[in-house]
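User: Just a sanity check before I run the rest of the batch. Below are the structure tokens for the first item. I only need the designed sequence back.
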């Protein structure tokens, strides 16, 4: 199991007139982080610091913490500790600081950056994920309600539903359930369902 962003979050705290604006989002590589940093710099052009931390990969070994001019260890590290505490991966939090004219000291900075990161995390939504597959199931309209009822009752994640000549359900199924779910769909539809394996993916649980 690993925790990933289900919904982005943005939160803000004020400490001695300085604004600390936290922003949590999903990211899987440095390029995505740079894109979001550029957006934050456009959004808050009067800020002095854009500090961040991220964790990439299911094993959580690809990490970085950036202080962006703040005293070493007072910004990126506390943000990273918040991510580690949430057991998050493929996740980045940027905390933008707009200086209020009062120095906070290293202890004050560390607390403020951690609190802003927590505010962003709490404003968003993290959800546990596991490895699985994306499966496309195509059935006739006559069978669609029966299949949908089974999927709903079995808590199978329906990522998308398409309506054309037939009904297409795009499903995210954890690895331990794939065989039984597909076997049940075949039985429900007397093997009329067309099943397509769309590859490995992360599945919310």
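Assistant: Here's the designed sequence for the first item:
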């Amino acid at each position: 199991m690993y925790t990933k962003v289900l919904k982005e979050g943005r939160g803000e705290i004020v400490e001695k007139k300085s604004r600390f604006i936290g922003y949590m989002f999903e990211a899987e590589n440095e390029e995505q982080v740079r894109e979001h940093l550029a957006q934050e710099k456009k959004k808050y052009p009067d800020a002095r610091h854009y500090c961040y931390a991220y964790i990439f990969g299911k094993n959580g070994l690809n990490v970085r913490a950036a202080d962006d001019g703040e005293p070493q260890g007072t910004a990126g590290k506390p943000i990273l500790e918040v991510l580690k505490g949430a057991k998050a991966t493929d996740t980045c939090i940027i905390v933008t600081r707009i200086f209020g004219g009062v120095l906070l000291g290293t202890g004050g900075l560390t607390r403020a950056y951690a609190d802003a990161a927590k505010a962003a995390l709490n404003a968003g939504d993290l959800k546990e994920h596991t490895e699985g597959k994306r499966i496309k199931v195509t059935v006739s309209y006559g069978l669609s309600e029966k299949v949908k009822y089974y999927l709903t009752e079995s808590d199978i994640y329906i990522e998308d539903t398409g309506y054309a000549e037939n009904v297409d359900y795009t499903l995210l199924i954890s690895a331990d359930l794939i065989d039984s779910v597909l076997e049940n769909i075949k039985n429900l539809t007397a093997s009329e369902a067309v099943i397509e394996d769309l590859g490995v993916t992360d599945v919310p649980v």
